[in-house]
Amino acid sequence: MFPTAALTSFAFLAVAVRGQQVGTSTAENHPALSWQTCTTGGSCTTNSGSVVLDANWRWLHSVGGYTNCYTGNEWDTTLCPDAVTCAENCALDGADYSGTYGITASGDALTLQFVTGSNVGSRVYLLADSSTYEMFQVLNKEFTFDVDLSNLPCGLNGALYFSEMDADGGLAKYSGNKAGAAYGTGYCDSQCPRDLKFINGEGNVVNWTSTSANSGTGSYGSCCNEMDVWEANSISSAYTPHPCSVSGQTRCTGDQCGSPDRYAGICDPDGCDFNSYRMGDTTFYGPGKTVDTSSKFTVVTQFYTNDNTTTGTLSEIRRLYVQNGVVISNSKVNIPGMTAYDSITSDYCDAQKTIFGNTDSFDNQGGLTAMGEAFAQGVVLVMSVWDDYAAEMLWLDSDYPATADASTPGVARGTCATTSGVPSQVESQSPGSSVTFSNIKFGPIGSTYTGTSSSSGGGGSTTTTSTVKSSSSSSTPSSTATAPGATQTHYGQW
């Protein structure tokens, strides 16, 4: 997710924390979400999964009491005088998913409401069981889902992506983490986010500095490989791999985090993105366009290897869409000096960086090869909705940088005004916005989608149509638990 997401942390409000101890004020009941595993033979099996809210959104309070460990943008220095003591003194509580966070699930559909009361945005992970994240190994496989983002305007991002997190949320690795995946701990991404309240089972309290009324950053960040399968609103979309030079969730500090030097870190903050509008096809995606965002559609992402096996080297990431029974191939690049690519390959990424004059942090951090190595280890599915305090989402849906000439290749990414995306305005003007992800399927290439015909959709070369068919209450007054929140800086390509 631009960054961080894919950058990645988001712009959410409220008091948030990757808490480590477990509180008893509110029972933690994970919303059920079914999804399917498909086979080459054409059959799909339903899995009984569930989702868990990220720890950074949860109420963090004193163990055995109701005193906030973190309020507004400040730590309680009595409870959190240092990193280790903070983890010992503070408990992470259960979540009221629908009432506090606007998260609802029904069958195979998950809806994330943008603003609910004082809470802004959310981030959830798919669970395999009550205490373990589902791990996806996507090499030579495809991942498919339906999405409805018809009421997601400029400045918002309904994101679905993979993060190289630990399956147990770091429970086994870090003795200070007593909550684990059951409470949404262990987040990391390619932006090495420093807004996380706990990293490696310790409070991120050293040099904590306010960045907004409800969030801040500490000395440490949490890095890992990230694959932004989907970052989008109703105006623009992008898919973007972000490789790192490290394997698995890694705590960083200083230059390792890419701060203040964006390109000095251990991960690629920009990634190699494919945004149809940015790549020269302005008619492909949006309301009334080839992929019509005014209604639900299916997104298919295929991860090809060099030898077409699950043990090969990642060589291509290809995108298809299905809407109203029609399979739509991805758009083709229409940029002077570039070949008419329609997928992400090493050649595409090299050409894009050269033509756009961007720093090639993608190749510098290992490119598709490094991304594929993370896929082989297994990655966690993340779904979120957020607004952007770092760059107002202009990198996704407008001209970015806003001061650059929009006619310069790579600057224009969508039709949103450069004055759009200001979080305070988006939150006040579009609080009822939401994104719904549904019908998640995973399996061999060609097994997860079907269509009665095929459309070029901008001239993509992938036109083969698949014919496979898939078959609590709190003992504490609500005023005690301050609203959770976090600032996601998850963005993609500069």
UniProtKB/TrEMBL annotation:
GO molecular function: cellulose 1,4-beta-cellobiosidase activity
Domain of life: Eukaryota
A GO biological-process term: cellulose catabolic process
SUPFAM superfamilies for this protein: Concanavalin A-like lectins/glucanases
Start and end residues of each stretch annotated as Disordered: 407-437, 450-494
Bias (Polar residues) ranges: 416-437
The protein's enzyme class: hydrolase
Keywords: Carbohydrate metabolism, Cellulose degradation, Glycosidase, Hydrolase, Polysaccharide degradation, Signal
Enzymatic reactions: Hydrolysis of (1->4)-beta-D-glucosidic linkages in cellulose and cellotetraose, releasing cellobiose from the non-reducing ends of the chains
Skewed-composition ranges (Low complexity): 462-494
EC number: 3.2.1.-
Signal peptide span: 1-19
Family: Belongs to the glycosyl hydrolase 7 (cellulase C) family.
Name this protein carries in UniProt: Glucanase
